[in-house]
Design a protein that fits this description.
The chain is mainly α. It is 72% helix and 0% strand. The longest helix is centred in the middle third of the chain and has 30 residues.
Length: 151
């Protein structure tokens, strides 16, 4: 990733959020965002929070869609486990990103973090419900032993 400084202006934040949305060097984006600042003033704060929530939502939905594709193509238990672990890794990344986003006040950070947790919990619940139709119990065991909401 090119040499960037932590974001300070709304414009710089939008650039990073676009990179986050496109999965452009997540580790570098996480580092920059965790060290960034933003003047928390009316207008800017609302636009920034809206853009942040849209970006996180986009990543949550993209992760779930990717899991659905990977799981649909899975031909063995190992492939299912890898798909589950990849989904959990994405949820963990987003939770860590929000937790370390010091430019956002604690209350708003907590709300967005909760959105990630709720999404992960809903996906896990859905997976467990779907696995009940597997009479062998293997899928239920795999889903319980590789929870996407435990990070």
């Amino acid at each position: 990733m090119y040499n960037m400084n932590p974001p300070k202006t709304y414009s710089e934040w939008v650039t990073l959020l676009d990179m986050l949305r496109n999965k452009t060097d997540d580790a570098a984006v996480l580092g920059l965002m965790s060290r960034g600042n933003l003047a928390w003033q009316s207008g800017v704060a609302e636009r920034f929070l809206q853009k942040l929530m849209e970006t996180v939502n986009y990543r949550l939905n993209a992760a779930s869609d990717k899991f659905d594709k990977d799981n649909g193509r899975a031909r063995d238990e190992g492939a299912v486990v890898r798909a589950l672990l990849a989904l959990r890794k994405e949820f963990k990344f987003l939770a860590d990103l929000i937790t370390n986003l010091n430019a956002v006040p604690e209350e708003q950070r907590q709300q967005i973090y909760q959105m990630v947790i709720d999404h992960a919990n809903n996906v896990q619940r859905s997976l467990e419900d779907s696995a009940k139709s597997d009479r062998s119990g293997k899928m239920s065991s795999i889903v319980r032993n590789h929870k996407v909401n435990k990070f």
